Amino acid sequence: MKPWRLTLTNKIVLAYGMHDAMDIYLSRAATNQELAQFHTEDYIEFLQRVTPFNIRSPEFSQGTLGYNIGDDCPIFDGLYQYCSLYAGASLDAARKLTSGQSQIAINWSGGLHHAKKSEASGFCYINDIVLAIIQLLLYHPRVLYIDIDVHHGDGVEQAFWSTDRVMTLSFHKYDKDNYFPGTGPLDSTGPQNSSNPGAHHSLNVPLHDGIEDDQYVKLFQDIVGPCVDVYQPTAIVLQCGADSLGGDRLGCFNLNIRAHGACVEFAKTFRLPLLVLGGGGYTPRNVARLWAYETSICIGAEVHPNLPAHTPFLSHFTPDKTLFPPLSESKRYDNRNSRQYLESVVMGIREQLRYVEGSPSVQMQVIPPDLGPVREEVDREIKEEREEKEGRRRERERGRGNRGELRD
Predict the structure, then answer these.
(1) Cα distances (angstroms) measured from residue 275 to each of 97, 98, 141
(2) CA 104: distance to chain centroid?
(3) Of residues 140, 151, 152, 200, which has the active-site annotation?
(4) Is 200 a known active-site residue?
């Protein structure tokens, strides 16, 4: 998750000249108030104050345990600035979509899908995806979240577990006991109580080691297509974790860059506002190749397979210096995904979609609890407006016959 992979991505994008076809913005740090739309204030304060030098002090030792700080989520210099910057970038990207300024917005530094409301998890401290979706929900009645990271998007699923205004769909390696985070089986589809609005709106596509390009792309299209048709989202958020590529240090699939990119291409075909985010990915040169290629897909540009000769740090992409190395051959896993198994997964997802009774009406459904501050502000404004009208009514009634004469 180190910024080096973002640096390499940026250099490739610039080398191809893709920046000329995009509007580029400097990331703005998210404010505490924005972060608090999902995360608890005490957790945000902890991230603000903790450093590698004071973490062992009595003041922070209890918080270290309570906030799941450890090997997977270490404390480092500039932690809070890092979190607020990538979260701010995702928030602003969402605002570009809601304002109509952009049809597609990209933040490769975002996509940290494991972070919980008051807990870090899996290298993720602030869940920028949840914050961005909350922003989209202020304008969009329904948001479809799609996750193609090799790990389950548990933090996002958990955040919107009880609402039908967000449908979460995660494609991931699933092994309850041996693969992080151990969640996301096919039958985990939301609250079990069918009267809960979130029932059947958390969909999971559990996969085994070694899935191949053709299988993955077909599976993605066979599932995402019906989800869009049934749920009718008005915006899509796509998390493009690169650890699902072949040869990733923590991955276990046999995917090549073109297959991963085909998922982005398919998401574009719905012509809905699309927020594209990064995520996992632990072989920096391949992460950079992938996200640069998917940037080209987003802007509709064709790029030459060979990296431009003037690309900075070109030596990191030796020996082939290409955008599309044969990743599936570098560290190959046995494919344990049979055709019958994948067909059963598709059938399971489509069965769940039968319970989704059309697209929910934003006026009739529960707003996620994380929008509470916004909702309370609106309620307060309505109350004040009513009190003001009542005051004016009483003023008009004064001295004009009996009280209540002007009441409808």
Answers:
(1) 8, 11, 16
(2) 14
(3) 152
(4) no
